[in-house]
Amino acid sequence: MLPKLYINGFSCLTSDAQLEDFAPFLDVRKLRRAEPISKNVLLCALRALQQAQVPPSAREDMGISLAMGAGALGSTIKFMDSIIEDGDELSSPTAFASSVHNSTALMLSMFLQMHGPCVVTGQLDASFAGALVTAQQFLAKHLCEQVLVVITEDVNPLLQDVLQKNPHVFDPFLYQPTQKAQRVAAAFVLSAAATQHTQFVLHHLQLASTQAVQTQSEPLIPVQSCAHSALLLNHYLQVKEPFHLQEQFAGMLFNVQGEPYVLP
Question: Mind listing the domains of the chain with CATH numbers?
């Protein structure tokens, strides 16, 4: 039987992290080469861990479940451009390294000193839901006591140009923003048992297929891919009331039910 998920800390960011934001946590000079989406999710992770009061000594065996719908799109485009302009042999190794989904997970593991199980889910709109399911499996199999579930999403400049010309060209597989999309990042510290810092409990988590392919067309803010599910969950947590989150996208159905946790 899969365990309930207890949320001990969470953080969400709908703008790019600034270097000064990291001053309370680490030496900002180490972030000079980091991609924006990696810096965004690192800041969210640091804030969520601080809220959950997870000491560095307890992070060693923590798991990481990272959701990235399409990865670092800016770096991916730079890498592809370097192949076109300079050929395969002279393509940019820096852009390639940054374009790989796992590079963000590696950065989180190094900066946060986490060496437990780590899985990156890249399943477009269903990525965040898949990351939560992965975390639930980590806990059910006792691979770790707590899991850091994180999500970070980039803005595709080429996609923005296409959507401005034809906003429905990718229906129903993308949310259709009416404004310029934003980068989004979020982090949630989860466990299978309540701690002194638990704030919410998720009683029901389900990711299933459906014959319907209609995608929600009115997001909370202009955002693409899997970030919207994380935004919705963060919204419900901020309200601090029982909730039922349900999203449908491109043949997938995502359900989460939860409520604030009260210490017995």
Answer: 5-260 (3.40.47.10)
